[in-house]
TrEMBL record:
GO terms for molecular function: dGTPase activity. Its EC number is 3.1.5.1. The gene is dgt_2. Keywords: Hydrolase. InterPro entries: dGTP_triphosphohydrolase_C. Gene3D superfamilies: eoxyguanosinetriphosphate triphosphohydrolase domain-like, Hypothetical protein af1432. This is Deoxyguanosinetriphosphate triphosphohydrolase. It is an enzyme of class 3 (hydrolase). The keyword S-adenosyl-L-methionine does not apply.
Length: 148
């Protein structure tokens, strides 16, 4: 399962996807100057709907292979994996739409997006079933066999 969500060309591919989405979606655009070509996520007069659209734009503008792996396993491929298997894929604990400051003690676990808005409820379910706290990640230790 490791790297299942990574695009062609690895980190360069991730950077290209992020750059394209940031250029096209302009996640920080205002309602007055929103030139988003995708009507479903173009800002409107509805403030609450705009909050969701902003979240989705942030998700797309912060593409990350590990977060995409969770999306692929759960929504796109609909793999029937155990909570433990998904827990091992959950390398980072920060949602892609996160805009707050990263707590210093969790800087490694939150340095990249670990999941998208569309999988947030599922990730919460996985964390509850596995008794994982938001700040815990077991995937690196399990995958590489290293202890920190």
């Amino acid at each position: 399962m490791h790297d299942i969500g990574n695009p062609p060309f690895g980190h360069f591919g991730e950077a290209a996807i992020k750059h394209w989405f940031r250029k096209v979606l302009a996640p920080d655009a205002s309602i007055e100057f929103d030139n988003c070509p995708f009507l479903p996520i173009r800002y409107s007069a509805d403030r609450h709907l705009n909050e969701l659209k902003q979240t989705l734009r942030q998700d797309l503008c912060h593409f990350e292979g590990n977060a995409q792996a969770i999306r692929m396993a759960h929504h796109l491929l609909k793999l029937n994996l155990t909570y433990a298997q998904i827990g091992c894929v959950l390398k980072y604990t920060r949602p892609a739409y996160w805009q707050g400051a990263t707590p210093k003690e969790f800087s490694y676990l939150m340095k990249k997006p670990g999941y998208y808005w569309s999988e947030a409820e599922f990730v919460k379910e996985v964390q509850e079933k596995l008794a994982m706290k938001d700040f815990l990640s077991f995937s690196t230790d399990l995958y590489y066999g290293s202890g920190r």
